[in-house]
């Protein structure tokens, strides 16, 4: 481990010890945020203070107060880098957690960040596919979750937990309009009658081309419409046993990526994308609560079509059509022996990918089809033991084994060339953790976990065209692997919550590509060949502070400043190149004001998008010392202001509220990813009825 690692570890240890000494004389509180129950860390309910990883939680109250429209709107408040691969609302919204980056390929095995809904995969890691209308809470594991969830959970896990109906009925309707012809319509209802509970929501939005912070129109950035829906219902046999059914999905139609500045092969790119799934689950437990179990089956589809327009701006050229099906099941059981608890289970996932690629220009004559089946079965065992007199020391460990069977049938139509292969891979991954609370208000934690990501079917065997150059699969590819370490603390005192974490990830066998000249008659003279890069290193710190200033001063309203900061100390590959498309700094800070008495919630949020780097590997003329920052990407502060004000109450029939927001208050001209410009100052005004 490098000397810089030891320096930052030493600094954090000193901070831990000084905090411990300071906190001993402080009075204790009756309730703590660290006693919040979470479900994502070990796939079952447990207290946050017993978890050895850094967990971020957004409660239903925080989701409502935030004024967030999407999941990424929330995550950027937590100091997590967010980006769009295209114009706003194009649909390809991603995140970077601890240097791990979600993919833009449309299915969840392609990225480093795993996105779950109610604890299971949805076939995609596009956060734009998931609405907040029926979200009860969101839990984020910062760091690997491979032992719990398998492949692709390298940088983090995001779990959106949907609402279940309660005895008291709830409902809402919202209608609103904004800049550039934006329209939003939302509705939802939930309740419980006898043994049956339900929660349902739906949302519709559309928008025309928007304007950038420099005053220019960003052509081809409109969205014809986006529809989201979620329906969660269940039959409760008793307090601990429930048979549940969840149906959810999203449908984005005719979304523009934005103007292509180069216009080498096309003018505009547009996209249709939909993601639908159904989940049937049974969860239960013994009367004593010592044993719990869960079984579920789910299936769905992720479809997207890209189409582009040639230089005439009238001829539409299909680029690719994708119809991806997925199925899966989970089975797990946990038992609490008192001081010792175990969780064991098995997961099965099956993907069927169908892709047709027609090339990017009418004269390209490069038509390809590919069908691949991706089957994964995995088993895991997690255990934890509580020690010391107050059981305030928790030791945890886990192990997981995954077996993969991949088959691909790829065809280059014009030359009538077919490539068919069957490939098997497997992976073992362990984890170890310690969580120690020397006093009630403080938790010290340390964690080690191994994580992995499988090569994609097209990377192992296949033939795809990017612009004019083919990418050829390599059946000898190994899974990407990483060893991950972190050390941190959480301080929960009165109205303060402070969190700090140092993390280090050592990546091996990262998958990249390089140029080859091929003697194979089926390939062009030049093609790209996938291979395993030797290594990469990511190291950084996560800091978070929030406190309720009004509570400290003895007031009943809420006045809560917060700041969350992720700083990457090192993010480079084995050759010393900085990893592209990662921001060195990501900051979310702001102030939340709330008063139940007057029915007002006000949120002022500032997001810092850090600089990013690019590498020109094609020319070979660049050196590590001359590696440049991406022009006009990052290095921008963007302020958002949102508020909700109660207009009046209807006796026993809810209340009417007005909602208003200003995004990009100071009209910043910025991009979160290369050539993907974000909107300038925009306004929204809506009316909401809530029961």
Could you name the ranges where pLDDT drops below 50 across 5 or more consecutive residues? 1-29, 360-365, 617-623
Whole-number mean pLDDT:
85
CA radius of gyration: 25 Å
Structural class: mainly beta
Task: Classify the helix fraction into a percent range.
Answer: under 10%
Content of β-strand: over 45%
Domains, number: 1
- The CATH class assignment is Mainly Beta
Task: Please give the number of β-strands.
Answer: 38
Q: Give the termini distance in whole angstroms.
A: 57 Å
General shape? globular
**Number of helical stretches of at least 4 residues:** 6
What is the H level of CATH, i.e. the homologous superfamily?
TonB-dependent receptor, beta-barrel domain
**CATH architectural grouping:** Beta Barrel
Q: Report the sheet with the most strands, covering strand number, pairing sense and barrel closure.
A: 22 strands, antiparallel, barrel
Please name the CATH topology.
Maltoporin, Chain A
Provide a short characterization of the protein structure:
By secondary structure, the chain is mainly β.
Report on this model:
Helices cover 7% and strands 58% of the residues. By secondary structure, it is mainly beta. The chain has one domain: Maltoporin, Chain A. A hairpin with a 5-residue loop joins strand 22 (368-387) and strand 23.
Give the secondary structure arrangement, pairings included:
Blueprint: H1 3-23, E1 37-38, E2 46-47, E3 54-59, H2 60-66, H3 71-75, E4 81-84, E5 93-97, E6 100-101, E7 113-117, E8 120-121, E9 135-142, H4 146-149, E10 156-162, E11 170-178, E12 182-193, E13 196-207, E14 210-211, E15 217-218, E16 223-236, E17 242-259, E18 268-285, E19 291-309, E20 316-336, E21 340-357, E22 368-387, E23 393-412, E24 417-439, E25 442-453, H5 457-460, E26 463-466, E27 469-472, E28 480-493, E29 496-517, E30 526-547, H6 549-553, E31 558-573, E32 585-595, E33 600-609, E34 636-649, E35 655-663, E36 671-673, E37 676-677, E38 682-690
Parallel strand pairs: 7-10, 27-30
Antiparallel strand pairs: 1-2, 3-9, 4-5, 5-6, 7-8, 9-10, 11-12, 11-38, 12-13, 13-16, 14-15, 16-17, 17-18, 18-19, 19-20, 20-21, 21-22, 22-23, 23-24, 24-25, 25-28, 26-27, 28-29, 29-30, 30-31, 31-32, 32-33, 33-34, 34-35, 35-38, 36-37
